[in-house]
Amino acid sequence: MSDKFKHDLSQSALIFKHVIYPIIKDWIGGGELIPVENVTEKQFTKLLDTNAGIDGWYVENNKGIRGLASRIQYRNAYNTFTIRYERHSGVKTEYEKLDHAINEDWLYPHYFIQAYVNLPKKFNYKEHDFSKNEIQILNIALTKTEDLISYYNSGKEETDWFYKEVTKHGAAIFIVIPWRYYNETNEAMIYDKSFLDKPPTTYAEKRLAKNRKKKKMLLKDTIMEDDIDKRSIYEDFYETLLKIHYPDYPEIFWERRIEHWNKHPDLKKSFDSKYEELQVKFYDA
Predict the structure, then answer these.
(1) What are the residue boundaries of the structural domains of the chain, listed by start?
(2) Which of 14, 57, 109, 164 is deepest in the core (most CB within 10 A)?
(3) Which of 170, 171, 175, 183 is closest to 204 using CA atoms?
(4) What residues pair up with 67 in beta bridges, in sequence order?
């Protein structure tokens, strides 16, 4: 483990404890944070990081304990989840650890937290007085780790996520998942949601926006067709869903029903009765 990595790990752990956790504490129940290094021998701390990706323990008395994973980035709020996918050194990555643990029923962090902060000038984490609140929180998001890994595994590159190569401080390839698109089908708790009310602005959002627009247009064109065979309407839509694998299907289809399918009164009653059945089929597929 390099000195640079040890420095970043220690700095991130303190920022998470004193700055980030007080914000997210009530999101997950108000329990106590116990950093891994506070209660674990160094050798086992390394094993937890190497095999499970756990940075801390969330404890609720008389209820239970859950593992937490955290990532902190600085200067800009990119509003993304980032997961290390591949190291040039060949060392096992976060994605490999988490995917293996989830699929094979091993220990893994229940929650994944990503935060963006600004540090004051000449910041020294060893000497800093965290009670002064000089660290600016840019944004924070929290989600269930299993949901995050499932989103990547079932999503499409350059539509739901993309890969980014980083060459500094240990070359690696990261999975980048914008919160904006992740939150359309999953639940991420976000500190500052104001960006969701605006058009895509970050590089990550813009990079995926074009392909996502194409998928929406494809679905819209399929729904708005005037010559659809009414007898096979549900089978046609189900087949289309499988082809384009569009996760926003239920909401968009429902909106289009309101503005378009009322033109076909004879379908309305049948559609209403079939909607839930079709939705279940889609998510079970």
Answers:
(1) 3-192, 210-284
(2) 109
(3) 175
(4) 57
